TrEMBL record:
Transmembrane segments: none annotated. Residues 116-129 have a biased composition (Basic and acidic residues). InterPro entries: DNA/RNA_pol_sf, Rev_trsase/Diguanyl_cyclase, RT_dom, Viral_Replic_Matur_Polypro. Pfam families: RVT_1. Gene3D superfamilies: 3.30.70.270, HIV Type 1 Reverse Transcriptase, subunit A, domain 1. This is Reverse transcriptase domain-containing protein. Residues 116-138 are annotated as: Disordered. Residues 402-572 form the Reverse transcriptase domain.
Length: 572
């Protein structure tokens, strides 16, 4: 918006007229006719306001006082005229103050024409005296008294204070220049470093185009005494410079990568090739990236299959898993795995000189390695409350095959997108994830209090015997109210599935599980038991009391399986 004239109202009218002309020339009149279009019109008028000072003033006024100007163009016009007038007055006032401070007078706009008597005068007229040197205004207020004058003219500052302030100002300016000079050096540093065998730290460079992790010969010489060396024949490696280099040595190293989020260390030793290229970096190849669960090609495939609705998922065609039917007998192999895991728990108890625990471990069928076709827990159903006036959430069909199914409803009004993501480096190791953020925004979240660990743990002060029980897939063991199952429906390319258990990602899932467990174990809570969502910590002062709490009627194990139908993990 040009402000070259003197009539502010005319500037604003011209600005709004030009916007209407642009809209009409491009055939967008209908787009700004309804209520939402008026809001978009005001939004674009505000974004295009100039100068920036006027733009900021209008935005701040709309945010604090005139909220109706975001939807009403007439209110916006009045507000822009008001703020533009204030800025023009402020500009004129500052201009006059500057002229008075410099002692200059404004030149007259009307030129005086003097009749020319002789084109070549014989005598040179007297030259006008040059004006005296005017004082230069200071660039800013005085650092001592905040008045507009130079520091040397400050009446309230002593000579020692003037010298000290001047010295401090010069040091700050020198430090600022020094930082700017070192900016290029700072930009060249890397944030990713790697520690080899715990003794040598080097910068690293991830490169998914290289099949192997590689290091230069000079760093190999520094770590010769720490490396298990394997001699190769000749191996060709395409390096970062797109040229082939030869590696004749391979070593197994302990690698720890330092990132901005924290250190990352693979569980196994990493094969590293020694090449004859010394560039001061460790080349992180595809073998190490895959071990850490980073597959660049796989991520690109997922990005290529996304649509406008969000994550569309996995392009790989997968066969559906075998359906699980409630009531059918379990496989022998599954029971054998659980028995083997329980035997390991018994061995650990014997090693700790607690052979009596064997009887309690075999007492009830509560141990699981994964969630099977067990019925839901015998606890109250979760009922999700929606806010008033909410409309059903919808999404577009995804391209993921349904590998985990429960029941389906082809007429559901609610649908949420689902995506299969990789759990590890294995190609078929996938996890089903559902984006419940839209549903959580419509939910009236349950009001409850979570325990403070630092306070409730004081109940276990002085205890000598502890045990921790971990629920397997805790949320999925709890039932979901039938009226709420449709709210958490998720859509695939074939059907809309309704979960029958509490889904992972539900806003009320964690607090509902905490409240349910506290209500079930009231007799033991804070006396011999602490609960934190899916973890139960049983404690006692002596081993006799600990075994008594496991052996007494309605003990912890009995309540878990026989009464409530809950399952705990045999791995922990």
């Amino acid at each position: 918006m040009s402000m070259s004239g003197s009539n502010v109202t005319a500037w604003v009218v011209d600005y709004f007229k030009r916007f209407q002309m642009i809209v009409a020339d491009n055939g967008l009149t209908e787009c700004f006719s309804h209520e939402r279009g008026a809001q978009q019109k005001c939004k674009r008028l505000i974004l295009s306001l100039k100068p920036p000072a006027l733009n900021q003033e209008v935005k701040q006024r709309i945010r604090n006082i005139h909220a109706d100007a975001k939807k009403n163009s007439k209110a916006l016009f009045t507000l822009v005229v008001e703020k533009a007038t204030e800025l023009e007055r402020q500009f004129i006032r500052l201009k006059l103050q500057k002229q008075e401070a410099s002692g200059r007078e404004e030149k007259p706009k009307v030129k005086l024409f003097v009749e020319k008597v002789d084109s070549k005068p014989t005598t040179k007229p007297d030259a006008k005296p040059k004006p005296a040197n005017l004082p230069i205004p200071p660039p800013g207020p005085c650092p001592k008294c905040s008045e507009l004058h130079w520091l040397r003219e400050c009446p309230s500052a002593t000579e020692a204070e003037k010298v000290e302030l001047l010295k401090r100002f010069r040091n700050a300016r020198t430090t600022k220049k020094a930082k700017l000079k070192r900016l290029d050096d700072l930009l060249q540093t890397t944030d990713c470093a790697v520690m080899l065998n715990g003794v040598l730290e080097l910068p690293c460079h991830p490169d998914s185009g290289s099949d192997f992790t590689a290091i230069g010969r000079s760093h190999w010489d520094q770590l010769t005494s720490w490396i298990r060396r394997v001699t190769l024949g000749t191996s060709a490696l395409r390096y970062r410079t797109k040229r082939l280099v030869t590696a004749t040595l391979k070593a197994k190293w302990q690698v720890q990568i330092h990132t901005a989020a924290g250190p990352v260390e693979p569980m196994e030793l990493v094969d590293v090739l020694v090449v004859d290229v010394d560039d001061g970096e460790l080349l992180v190849g595809n073998n190490l990236l895959t071990t850490l669960g980073i597959d660049v090609d796989r991520r690109l495939e997922q990005l290529a299959c996304r649509d406008d609705a969000g994550p569309a998922g996995d392009p790989i065609q997968l066969d559906d898993d075998m359906p699980v039917h409630v009531g059918e007998p379990f496989s022998i192999n599954g029971d054998h795995d659980i028995f083997f895991a329980v035997e390991q728990l018994i061995d650990r108890a014997v090693d700790c000189r607690l052979p009596q625990v064997e009887n309690y471990v075999h007492a009830s069928d509560i141990w699981r390695l994964d969630l099977r076709a067990d019925p839901p827990a015998n606890v109250p159903l979760l009922e999700v409350q929606l806010r008033e006036g909410n409309r059903p959430a919808k999404c577009k069909p995804t391209k993921n095959p349904h590998t985990y199914t429960s029941s389906y409803n082809t007429k559901s009004q609610w649908s949420i997108s689902v995506l299969l993501v990789k759990k590890s480096a294995e190609l078929m190791d996938l996890r089903k994830t559902v984006d419940y953020r839209t549903m959580n925004a419509l939910t009236d979240i349950m009001v409850a209090v979570m325990p403070i660990i630092s306070l409730v743990s004081e109940n276990a002060h002085g205890m000598n015997h502890f045990d921790i029980f971990d629920f397997i897939n805790c949320f999925r063991q709890l039932p979901l109210d039938e009226l709420c199952q449709e709210l958490f429906s998720y859509m695939t390319d074939e059907k809309i599935f309704n979960p029958r258990r509490v889904p992972q990602g539900c806003a009320d899932a964690a607090i509902n599980f905490q409240k349910t467990m506290e209500a079930r174990f009231t007799s033991l809570l804070y006396q011999h038991l602490l609960i934190w969502i899916d973890y139960l910590s049983l404690y006692a002062e002596d081993i006799e009391t600990y075994l008594e709490k496991l052996d007494e009627p309605f003990s912890l194990l009995f309540l878990l399986m026989d009464h409530f139908g809950l399952n705990i993990s045999a791995k922990k």
